[in-house]
Specification:
This protein is an all-alpha fold. It contains six helices and two strands.
Amino acid sequence: MYFSSEDLLSGLGWLAVWLGVAGIVVAISIWRARRQGSTTLALDVTRNASLVYIGLMVIGAGLSGLDTMGGEGVALDDDAWAYVRENQSALDSSACPETYGGEVGMLCGDSYVGPVPFGIQLLIFAGTLLALAASAAIAWAIYNATRRAGQRQPFHPSVSRTFGVVAIVSMSAAVIGDLLHQIGMTLAVRSLDWNSAAPQLNFGLDVELWPFALAVGLFALSAIFRFGAQLQNEREQLRRETEGLV
């Protein structure tokens, strides 16, 4: 999952909007923490920011569903769109849906193509949904850790378990989501009305390595918090034994 824009100025504008939203969340969190006399300001800000991020992922999932399955076609990624543009002369009929802005010609003005079967739209949306879920799962692990730390229980067993589960979930969701997206893009291109002169678009495979590195880091955090809980239990046991001697 990433943010992209075909226009630099509009992209910078949206980036400024996102940074503004983040700044507002931080400012409100700081104001509330100081008003309540909180001594865990950094934890409060991080906890609130993670909740807002999860909310944004939920909203993003809904908007993505409307965008992907709300029309006759789909917006292709860069590689799929480049293939269609290079071979548009091999199209037997327009790849621009009639309901899409009244465009005339074989292609729309952007990377939107159609009509695309609903099953392919659903496959692409599933890939996007898994990518958002992977990101939201990490935010949930951060929220749980900061919440427990704010309750003076930084090494609560749920913190270690959550990081371990999220490591598997985020890695699996990110990899599978990306694979579904790639397959969906290829199927979307193949579903267009090509003639026999069109070269065959083969299924490719691009596997990102960052989900595996992220999983290693989350497993490390899980082990660290588990070890911290063990040390805390040993310290409590030693304290009780010492008090018994006194």
